[in-house]
Amino acid sequence: MAPAGGPPRQTAVLTLVVVLLAACTGLRPAPLVSVPPATAAAHPVVIIPGILGSKLEDSRNGRIVWGKIFDLRALTVHQSLVQPSTGGFDGLELPFESTNFRTDTDHLVPTTIMDSFTIIPHIAEVKVYRRLLEALAVCGYRPGPIQSCGLHANAAVFAYDWRRDLVETAQKLAARIREIQANTGDPRMKVDIVAHSMGGLVAEYYLLYGDEDVLDRDPLPPPSYAGAANVRRLILLGTPNEGSLEALRYLHEGYRVGFRRVSNLVTFTMPAIYELLPAGATVRLVDPNGRSAGLDLFDLETWQRYGLGVFSRPSRRGFLHECKLLFPANWQARSEEISSQIVRFVAAALKRAQRLQYALAPFATAPPPVEVYLIGSASRATLDAAELRATPHGWRLAFGSTSWGGGRRALPAAPGDGTVTAASFTWGEFTRTGPDGAPASGTAAGFPVDWVDEEHARLPANNAVLARIVAFLARPSGAGPTVPR
What we know:
Blueprint: H1 8-23, H2 37-40, E1 45-48, E2 54-58, E3 64-66, E4 108-113, E5 116-120, E6 124-127, H3 130-138, E7 143-145, E8 155-157, H4 166-184, E9 191-196, H5 198-209, E10 231-237, H6 245-253, E11 255-257, E12 260-262, H7 264-267, H8 271-274, E13 284-286, H9 300-306, H10 313-326, H11 331-360, H12 362-365, E14 371-376, E15 380-383, E16 385-391, E17 394-398, E18 401-402, E19 409-410, E20 413-416, H13 422-425, E21 442-444, E22 447-451, H14 463-474
Parallel strand pairs: 1-8, 1-9, 7-8, 9-10, 10-14, 13-16, 14-22
Antiparallel strand pairs: 2-3, 2-4, 5-6, 11-12, 15-20, 16-17, 18-19, 21-22
């Protein structure tokens, strides 16, 4: 610690460090929740992270593409968007030549869960999923790679490529759970699942349909509950059961990581983001007067007509600029060819995303025979509307607040965790509040729901959440939905 009378520059640096340290909930000690180890570890636990929650590496050379804030790569439009790379490294964008998303593959592979995110190396970090692993370890679990779960570990981290179609990810989850059962020597062994954010949708699909892809079947078949036969308990943390406005923002604007940006010419290639788009009336597109625009986000014509996502004027300009640089002799013909591929890809992604929402609907209306417990937040203002406005240069989509016409006004917000509204988390059933206006524990779709004061990304590291998780996992079967507070 510097002396009180240290140089102003040194004092300023130390002040910045102190502020960052105070902001990092990951630096608080993990809660010590004491439960009998034999009870806590009776069933293996699989942790499924949310979007952005797994590290991605280039399998050819081990280069980290997603996983370290100071080593992030390809966060702007990569050349392979319009000209596939032959010798360079892959960026975050996926190939989009085919509408069969399984064949749109690159060399990136998930390696491990994002256990923490470093702000300043060796000084400040936010522990994302590490604190959950630490809490499980205190309670008698042995965390380890999923390949060893059932052998030397019984708390597995399921890393997956969060860019890819969620059904594909559910199928990989099914394979991992079969591996766990084989490791234990008991093909009927049931696992417990703790799923955060988008990971909850992966778990829900698995419980309903196992490893079967039903999205291309017409009509959709009723759930087989094939995956439910292998799961004892499921804990959902902030799952966007009816989508999130952030998915639309990611597809329209891209997203920022620190001072760097992932372009929407990258995010549009990721099927999983379309599968997070808001459903029904949970999130609205409104006109400048606050009236619902009545638009279908799963209709390609909506995106093209209003310039959403990759069809926006800035995106189009950026795309054409890349084409002119790479194909100076025939840029117009090449841009038209690639544009046609983009249209086909987006149409297929929107259709499949809507089919996934239809397929997941029975989770709330005809629940699987599994104990399910929801933990979320309703204490943070969460956007539930984006504004469409006609301008002389075309339509514009605004999030958060608007400043057109010389004034500035905030768009409507709803209770939530800052990313997922409480209504989306509870399939539209969020209505109960306590005497002081805070949300009261209740049920949604018949499942018990508990509320904590936390933002979306930090739910897996929140002390109250960790206490509820380990208590729910340890309670005897048939003991009822109540868990210790």
